[in-house]
Design a protein that fits this description.
The protein has one domain: Luciferase-like domain (TIM Barrel). It has an 8-stranded parallel β-barrel, surrounded by 8 helices. The chain is an alpha/beta fold. Strand 3, helix 3 and strand 4 form a beta-alpha-beta unit. It has 13 helices and 9 strands.
Length: about 325
């Protein structure tokens, strides 16, 4: 089983964005040593508790401090940007860090309506134009616009020896069909989907069209995982993350990820308890052996080629320990 890391660069209560970003770099370095396939960092805008609005900046930092692990965006929120600019940026990263760069493409706003308005114009129109924008991006990367196209002589410089890998990220049949139709790899966000239907990945695979960039379909399943030496401790650290999820849903996330002690003291209302149980159903929580079996079951159910793990804990050391325990249980055996 191939395992990868998805990092939202969370800020824990009582810490700073600077610390969170440095911890993200540390996670990527340790992930490389542990044998994870790739490390992706997410893009968020003006969301308290998430510290990375610019994955491309962090990727330069992380790439310079690692040697072999693939690194990428999870995701570039394409409706905010011109495809040419994204092609230039990731071609440059691929030139600096050969055969290591992924471009994960998403269509979400990544922040509030006000932040979206501050960042880009006509966002909803750009979402509607997503298929055309993806086409433009692929043409810029491959340098293969038709000869009569306006951009046929425009080069997304520098041109790397090996192009970045393009991934479509999503949680629906619509995103699966877009990835399949464009011949890109696909990452399904199990951790954030309200429709965890394995058929979505099968729709992608059945409709995949071979492209110059990818000869056969390749799919990642992105899952929230909390692993500790004991299932009891895993449940405790998961409760902290779950509380933060509930706080975010109420707009009360400003302090960052709450501590385990705060989560223990918190009295969930009946409605919040229902939300908590619903959120837990999307998560894998337990000791290393339990987590391994659950991930094997998910991979078999979804027929995913790779599992990408997202872990948010109050204590950054426990986050690293979770990834370490999973790697020792799965990648070392």
């Amino acid at each position: 089983m191939k395992l990868s890391i998805l990092d939202q660069s969370p800020v824990s209560s009582g810490t700073t964005a600077e610390q969170a970003l440095k911890e993200s770099m540390k996670l990527a370095k340790i992930g490389e040593v542990l044998g994870f396939e790739r490390y992706w960092i997410a893009e968020h805008h003006d969301i308290a508790g998430f510290s990375c609005p610019a994955p491309e900046v962090m990727l330069g930092y992380i790439g310079a401090n690692t040697e072999s692990i693939r690194i990428g965006s999870g995701a570039v929120l394409l409706p905010h940007y011109k495809p040419y600019r994204i092609a230039e940026t990731y071609n440059m990263l691929a030139t600096l860090f050969p055969e290591r760069i992924d471009i994960g493409i998403g269509r979400a706003p990544g922040g509030s309506a006000e932040a979206t308005m501050a960042l880009s114009d006509n966002f909803l129109e750009q979402v509607r134009r997503m298929p055309e924008s993806v086409d433009e991006l692929l043409h810029f990367l491959n340098h293969d616009f038709p000869s009569d196209h306006l951009f046929s002589k425009v080069s997304a410089s520098p041109r790397p020896a090996v192009l970045p890998e393009v991934w479509m990220l999503g949680t629906s049949e619509k995103s699966a069909l877009l990835a399949a139709g464009k011949g890109t790899a696909y990452a399904f966000g199990h951790f954030m989907s309200n429709n965890n239907d394995p058929e979505i990945i099968q729709t992608y695979k059945h409709n995949f069209r071979q492209s110059g960039m990818l000869q056969q379909p390749h799919c990642i399943l992105a899952v929230t995982v909390m692993c500790s030496e004991t299932s009891e401790r895993a449940e405790e650290i998961a409760r902290s993350s779950l509380l933060w999820g509930i706080q975010r849903s109420k707009g009360e996330e400003g302090k960052g990820v709450p501590s385990v002690e705060e989560a223990k003291r918190y009295s969930f209302s009946i409605e919040e308890q229902k939300k908590l149980e619903k959120m837990k159903k999307k998560m894998v929580i337990g000791n290393p052996k339990t987590v391994k079996q659950n991930l094997i079951d998910l991979q078999r159910l979804y027929l995913a080629d790779e599992i990408m793990i997202i872990t948010i804990t109050y204590d950054y050391g426990e986050r690293i320990q979770s990834y370490k325990l999973i790697a020792e249980e799965i990648l070392s055996n």
